[in-house]
């Protein structure tokens, strides 16, 4: 069976390509694929006939309970016959129906139909519920694609979306049900689920499981209140409607219900719900079928009514109900597909489908008319057609079941309406109203008339000679659904029985409906309220509300005000800290107050004062100065607490920030209006103070709990022994944690590239005006200072391994040298004296840093293990660290210069 | 000193937040720079203020004696440089915003919002 699915799938992907090279005949050739599969199924009929079940499985993801297990029993077999048999006819029919379409379109249609066939086969063959779910969803998606086949029409797009929304919703319900079943039983086997139906129903998940399964089935089989998608889905090309929306896919809900009948029957309300829903569906569909204006929607509503009957039969207990369900399922598939084909032929040849404006087509479409007549007689349940037999079973099942007479009365009424609809759709377009005949676009062709005729004939032949089909399909199917073999006796004449009387009643009312169709139809159409309160409208209003709600929510949350976003972040952080502290129920531990040193205290307080001043000042320049003050005081603080490397770096950075931001402030207006009201400022200050207070206590607590850092102790011990360096900070950066540093260097390189691309002078160069006069003080010291700084930066880089310094600081100091030059003589001269583009420096630097780790690999050590050479006593000790640090130096220098030159040039434009 | 440095670090942090919450992008930029400084201060405190001796191994000795914590210093050193790159990057963005939008007010930088939501003419809305 897996082979069957694989053939079907790969065939679906490849065979339709024939339609690209062939013209009209392609349909017949492509139909050989489903026909071949049909033959394959028929060849195993003898196995199914004996009531055996064929199983096959391969493990897929056993940890998840997901195994690709399939099984073929009687019920699946019946579905497989219908799917492949009708599938072949659909393909043949499409070959004739789609003559007006380009070849690419036709090929696409065939592909979708065959893929759909594969998905259907997979669904009915699946034994593992997860596999079933996957194929089930595949049918929904393919139905979406087929309904929306004409993607340029907005109506078919809308119909496709609606069909997908409803059936995919049902698919989600099925997913929920399957997950819950797996949770309860610990297995996803369908047979196991049916066997342990009582366990499922008794578990706390019993109710939800049944509800989800019912919803899944109702959405797929278009039961009330999910029925509205099916009439809309008639936007699909007619062959697709015949295949998906009457013969096969919509019956998957029935399939699911029939399979899980023991499960929902085990709950107290399962059967009652199914029967009630089925009755409402039948009534609504019957009413709408009489109101329907055109051919296809009349058929669609009668399909919904038929699905209601099937649902009702699944809900009823007793063997007769199962026999009736299986019989009617087959009969309906045959005659409804035939009727859809006829409807398609009418639309194809006349281009219109309004029942009131069609007439007299028997003259141009004689064979279609005959096929339509045969199928309609079956639908109306006139002997000796198959529909008659199935209707007899239907009434028998209802009489035998333990239910009240209300469903029976509804069933009789609905059958009467079906008689009426069958009569109207046959008589009016084909046989009545000869005067309405208009010239037709297409005449009948073999591929258009053969499929409906074959199906109509099948309905007749099966009922006259039901032996084979009863033996191989119906009886095993009933046995598979009912759980044990049931005697199925199909014959046209049972004698004068109550069922025959009921049939007679139904046909009589149906004849009356045919006679008075026009007044009934116009009267019903004039009731607008039926449209206004339809579920479809509710669904649309719901969707519109959902979109509006989402839009409102988005506008409320995504207001676009940066300040409020940040406020949320800050306040949220504070709230999280408060909450977690509250949960931990711990008070911060306070450290011992140590001695207070006067000088550091003053420095630190000056820094804090600078920060306060920055928040108070209105001028941006003052703010810059105040921030710089804070930075310098922190640098001094670092220096006074044994961190000369940090102090050096911080000093240089602050100096560079002043230079760079000055360039910015020169370009933008310094005096800016206040952007916050005093109230806002106050609330901002309160929240900031809250977060700062939390941090204050948090860090005090951390300091009080402080313990010796083992890593720090390790680095202190090993830095000279293992890495030949005296300056532990630098050794950590370039050796122990070199990969980290490499990453950070890379970040800086990337930011330089980003800045360079943002600041690239677009199109025009700055006008080469007279260079600005150089200030006297700069003229005297500028060049000397820059040279001095450059020399210092190289010393800092060189001695970094043993003394305070290193690549980062070195690069920053070198950049400072060029900053001085550009302040003194302008950007252009500064850049000329560099003799290279800043990004080139970045690239070379990155290369140095990356290459410096390679020699270690040659020596068989991990990347970035630095090697040392003692210099042979003449030279100072040399190591690959200096290459790494040089790389860092160049990247930092290049990056800062990219910022510096870019900002200054952009600002001076 | 621990109390003082915690107070100063947290104070800088708070002031930085007030600046960041401004809608003037230059003030936000200064705030972010200040935030980096304050955070570095707090990070330095996390390494504990224990010695004024820099973490440098003296000549003739093979291991580090009593000194400040080298790890936090290594971390802060890269943090300073990265924070600097961040600040300057923001300066570039502010300058571009001024050149293209003619404003440094965050509220007016709404070029993306004025484009409207994507798929404005959704069939469901129509």
Describe the secondary structure blueprint for this structure.
The complex is a heterodimer of chains A (909) and B (126).
Chain A: H1 2-14, H2 18-21, H3 26-30, H4 32-43, H5 45-49, E1 54-61, E2 66-72, H6 74-97, H7 103-125, H8 129-147, H9 154-185, H10 190-195, H11 197-202, H12 206-220, H13 229-232, H14 238-247, H15 252-259, H16 261-265, H17 270-291, H18 295-315, H19 319-350, H20 366-380, H21 386-400, H22 406-431, H23 446-464, H24 467-482, H25 498-515, H26 517-525, H27 529-532, H28 535-557, H29 562-584, H30 598-616, H31 620-640, H32 644-667, H33 678-705, H34 710-723, H35 728-736, H36 738-759, H37 776-799, H38 807-825, H39 827-834, H40 838-851, H41 854-858, E3 868-869, E4 878-879, H42 881-907
Antiparallel strand pairs in A: 1-2, 3-4
Helix pairs in contact in A: 1-4, 1-7, 4-6, 6-7, 6-14, 6-19, 6-23, 6-24, 7-8, 8-9, 9-12, 12-15, 14-19, 17-18, 17-22, 18-19, 18-22, 19-20, 19-21, 19-23, 19-24, 20-22, 20-23, 21-22, 21-25, 22-25, 29-33, 30-31, 31-32, 32-38, 32-42, 34-35, 35-36, 36-40, 36-42, 37-38, 38-39, 38-42, 40-42
Chain B: H1 2-20, H2 25-46, H3 70-101, H4 111-114
Protein name (chain A): Hydrogen gas-evolving membrane-bound hydrogenase subunit E
Domain Na+/H+ antiporter MnhB subunit-related protein (chain A): 779-897
Pfam family, one (chain A): Proton_antipo_M
How would you characterize the overall build of this protein?
With 909 residues, chain A is mostly helical. Among the domains of chain A are: 246 residues, no CATH class; 27 residues; 184 residues, no CATH class. Chain A is 73% helix and 2% strand. Chain A is built from 42 helices and 4 strands. In chain A, the strands form 2 sheets. In chain A, strands 1-2 form a two-stranded antiparallel sheet. In chain A, strands 3-4 form a two-stranded antiparallel sheet. The longest helix of chain A has 32 residues. Chain B has 126 residues and is an all-alpha fold. Chain B has one domain: Helix Hairpins. Helices cover 61% and strands 0% of the residues of chain B. In chain B, helix 1 runs antiparallel to helix 2 and helix 2 packs antiparallel against helix 3. The longest helix of chain B is centred in the last third of the chain and has 32 residues. Chain B is elongated. At the A-B interface, helix 9, helix 28, helix 29, helix 30 and helix 31 of A face helix 1, helix 2 and helix 3 of B.
